[in-house]
Amino acid sequence: VEETYVEHLVERKKDLLIDGSFDFSADTTQWSEEQSVLWESGDYGVMGSRAAGALRLNLNSPELIKLYYPQRKHKALARERDLLKRYLVPGGVFESQTEYDDKFLFCSIDFARSLMSYDQEVTSVEVFLKDPSQADQLQKQVQEIVGEKFEVKNRYEQEDLLFKTMKTEKIVLFVILAFILLIAIFNIIGT
User: Fold this and answer.
1) Are strands 83-94 and 17-20 parallel, antiparallel or unpaired?
2) 38-73: per-residue pLDDT in tens?
3) Cα–Cα distance list, 180 to 74, 177, 185 (Å)
4) 48, β-bridge pairs
5) Under a CB-based contact definition with an 8 Å cutoff, are residues 27 and 44 in contact?
6) DSSP calls for 114-159
7) Residue 49: count of CB within 10 angstroms of its CB
């Protein structure tokens, strides 16, 4: 992620960070004696709590996180050389929703581009609004500007499963409460 995104995230979500910091940069290139690897400044990441727990991540340990990513121009993944390998220093742990805690790792945009073999390409853009009530109007305007080749989603469309689940829960809760009320009414009438 870009530094401006990190600043926005830290400003709005300070309570997400449970250990470490959202700082992705170091001043110098460093050497890990234990793993005999070199990592560049900026190679720090913040990982979700469940993923960090599964990896038994210790921020005070000299161990690095080894990341593999398929090379873009290779068709098969049969050999290790078909994968790019990069090292990341664990810099922090965040906790939000279970889905994010399992899957997400925040790192510098330069590290992510290096890992995924991108130069200046952009795969997504996030827009934060001062007035969220303008989201639908802005979404339509942006979709007209970028055309049909791109998807423009609001926060509800990005988390479609979560919001559908919440809506279903409300309906089920209403039906259960209505059924309880109906039984209570028959009990009162019957006595």
Assistant:
1) antiparallel
2) 555 557 888 888 888 888 888 777 778 888 888 877
3) 60, 5, 9
4) 94
5) no
6) HHHT-SS--S------SSGGGHHHHHHHHHHHH-TTS----HHHHT
7) 19
Q: What are phi and psi of 83, to 5 degrees?
A: -115, 140
pTM more than 0.70: no
- Out of 2-16, 155-169, 171-185, give the one with best mean pLDDT: 171-185
Strand, helix or coil at 96?
A: coil
**Could you please report the per-residue DSSP string of 50-118?**
HHHHHTT--TTSS--EEEEEE-TT-S--SSGGGEEEEEEEEEEEE-S-HHHHHH-EEE-HHHHHHHHT-
**Amino acid, res. 70:** P
**Distance between CA atoms of residues 46 and 39, nearest Å:** 16
Tokens, residue 109: 């945009």
